[in-house]
């Protein structure tokens, strides 16, 4: 049976057939621009703080939960995230299943000073050039949908363009790939993208296979400060949180709560 991840990738592949590829001059400009930007802001945001560092996500919908973002505009949500101390913003730009669009990256860059992680289903180089053009500071690369050879090449290309590649893993074989590809930042997804099962135990289990110096992000299914505390004890300081913030009555209060702070008054 075809799982949802395969379905998403098949749809993406079809869409990419119509994508315009950048010209050589455009590419040269892009490399020049990006390499003059100095240290990568996303990498710094994760690397310097003991945490908890929260990467707060904007996602309009998801295949498992349907519609998610209804009560706020993208800008309002980002404003609240920044005010409450998010270290970065994640945007899910996939169109068909998550109702996103690539310009989300530019919009967030315009209304906030935080680094932006673009989450999409990257299977071709052209998507990496597009992320650079939009101004993404980091880009998700899902180990399961890429061969080792491609993953390696994509990690390198991201770095040449001053984009931090966040390599997402869900099991032991993904971890092997991520390590072989020398991924600087590894995201352990607590959600199995094929079955939608979620468990933060997945971070605890897989963390053990990663050398101490790797930067680890625990992704998905984080709903309470207890979850965060449990993971901090395992040496994980970075967290990617979407649904529990987007669905909260007051996303900024929820973020403060996840950081272990007290709630602020309602607006
Ligand atoms: O909404 P959650 O359960 O807090 O999860 C956020 C994020 O980890 C999730 O959206 C995600 C993880 N990997 C992805 C890959 C593509 C799209 C989305 C994702």
Describe this structure in words.
There is one protein chain. With 267 residues, this protein is an alpha/beta fold. It has one domain: Aldolase class I (TIM Barrel, Alpha-Beta Barrel). Helix content is 42%, strand content 16%. The chain has twelve helices and ten strands. The strands form two sheets. It has an eight-stranded parallel β-barrel, surrounded by six helices. Strand 7, helix 8 and strand 8 form a beta-alpha-beta unit. The radius of gyration is 17 Å and the shape is globular.
Keywords:
RibuloseP-bd_barrel, 10 strands, globular, 267 residues, 12 helices, alpha/beta, single chain, eight-stranded parallel barrel, two-stranded antiparallel ribbon, EC 4.1.1.48, binds indole-3-glycerol phosphate, TIM Barrel
In the residues, how many domains can be counted?
Answer: 1
CATH architecture: Alpha-Beta Barrel
Looking at CATH, the homologous superfamily is Aldolase class I
Helix content: 40-55%
CATH first level: which class?
Alpha Beta
